[in-house]
Amino acid sequence: MLLFANICLKIATLATICGILSQLQVAGAAAPAGSVQQLPQRIYNLLHQLSCGRKLNASAKFALLLAEFLIKQKMRYITPTRYDRQLYYQLLHKMKQLGSCASQGEINQVQELILRNAFQRNVLLLPPNLKYGALNANAEYEQLALSYDSLVSQGAPNRTQSDLCMRDIVNLDTSKCQLSLNCLELLTSEAPAYGYQRTHQALLLYMLQHHICAPSLSPPQLYEELAKGHCNEILSEQNAIRSLALGLGKYKDLYLEQATICGLWGYNEFLNWRNVMEIDSWRKEEEQQEGEEEEEREHIKDLSLVFYINALLLLH
Ligand SMILES: *[C@@H]1O[C@H](CO)[C@@H](O)[C@H](O)[C@H]1NC(C)=O
Ligand SMILES: *[C@@H]1O[C@H](CO)[C@@H](O)[C@H](O)[C@H]1NC(C)=O
User: Fold this and answer.
1) For the chain, which residues make up each domain, given as ranges?
2) Which candidate in 24, 41, 60, 299 could, as Cys together with 56 as Cys, close a disulfide (CB 3.0–4.6 Å)?
3) What's the pLDDT at 25?
């Protein structure tokens, strides 16, 4: 970024063009200069903040498992350069250390079953890919924005249902591959859902798609189709959140969860440099003001770790 700014300053007559260019770069596919190098550093900083002293609860541990899985999946399909390989191994090493820290937060029995198996056993690795323009970017969201505050808590699954379904997915018996009815219903439901309920549907689907039982449960295109449906809805929600006066202040955590989960599915509408910069700017704000709730900040860190690592792997 800095270098870019310098050139703009020197060639004064071109300043306006540079201004336009840098905006385009932020919004488009190209990486703003500087961000690319900074991404690994941001991830190191985050990992540092997640250090052993802090109590890792279920969602922090889950984030570490997911991040590790993403790196391994990428390495399996795309031979890394020597630099990348070194970086990936350093990250994996650091995450392994963190994951094995003794100090744990409260983790219930269902969560324990999830953490023992998720992304570690019976996984199906799939080639990672970034999908451009697959979603409907022009969907209506003004109506949604008007009633978003009351809609956001509607739909299924709630946290308990989501944990139970996740447990069923990661503990599928690979000789039968029979998923519980409750979970199947959740995953195929067409009932309206918003907020975390919708993101959890998309996450559960992602986990099922990466289980070795996935191909025997349904054809691969079906997972993609269902995910596209979810992420199209989620994109409208993000637009609604952006259009609300206090939207991004109020729904930061949700916004990041939406970007992270639809980013896992590779949708460029979520996984892009604009979002990397946006999320980065929140972190800078937070370092300055201590007002926000500790809890929410911690969850934002867990999510950002997954978001940044996915960005490192797919946008780099
Ligand atoms: C979650 O939803 C189920 C089914 O509707 C309900 O029985 C349960 O009480 C809900 N749990 C919470 C924590 O809201
Ligand atoms: C884990 O802790 C964070 C805050 O530290 C909280 O926001 C989140 O809801 C917790 N998750 C679980 C599954 O307990």
Assistant:
1) 34-314
2) 60
3) 40
